[in-house]
Specification:
This protein is of the alpha+beta class. The protein has helices spanning 2-8, 15-30, 34-37, 71-79, 89-102, 125-138, 143-150, 155-161; strands at 45-48, 51-57, 64-69, 108-110, 116-118. β4 and β5 (116-118) form a beta hairpin. α2 crosses α5. It is globular and about 45 Å long.
């Protein structure tokens, strides 16, 4: 529901936020790290059997994966002319906190030190990947497939992501 709220947010009057929201959603739809999402290029997109796939070479692990591209992700990639680059990770994180607050992701949660903070303040570029992995698991996708899609080398590493602060 929270991912949908972010996707449905009208940011047309704030192009910088809109572009970051689009990159975040592409990361979510394709289970990509921030560093991998900003390197998406048209040359790595192929079509087979009526479906589009992205050949990702994970920046961190150098794992090669062929990620199915959901129509919503492909539309966002095309909208941004196959160029998802832009802000630094730190600036993207600042924008995502604003976007999450605008989308109503405000439920208080326990913060460091025990105080309550809004969930929107915890949203980062990495939330997309964590949420994608968690939601795939909750929808019945086997761990081995999630590992392949996201380029994880070790199941133990993937398990650290699952249900750890993702959005629903």
């Amino acid at each position: 529901q929270e991912i949908e709220a972010i996707a449905d947010l009208n940011l047309s009057s704030r192009p910088g936020l809109e572009r970051e929201r689009d990159r975040f959603l592409v990361s979510y739809y394709m289970v990509l790290r921030y560093g991998d999402s900003v390197r998406i290029c048209e040359a790595n997109i192929t079509q087979h059997g009526g479906h589009h796939y992205y050949k990702n070479i994970a920046e961190k692990t150098e794992t090669v994966s062929f990620v199915p591209i959901k129509p919503a992700a492909l539309a966002l990639i095309k909208k941004n002319t196959y160029n998802p680059s832009g802000d630094t990770n730190q600036e993207a994180n600042r924008k995502l906190k604003t976007i999450a607050a605008m989308a109503g992701i405000l439920t208080n949660m326990a913060g460091p030190g025990g105080g309550n903070i809004p969930r929107s303040s915890m949203v980062t570029t990495h939330t997309a990947r964590r949420s994608a992995a968690t939601n795939l698991l909750l929808s019945g996708v086997p761990l081995s497939e999630i590992m392949q899609l996201g380029g994880w080398k070790f199941e133990a590493t993937l398990k650290q992501y699952l249900l750890a602060g993702g959005l629903s």
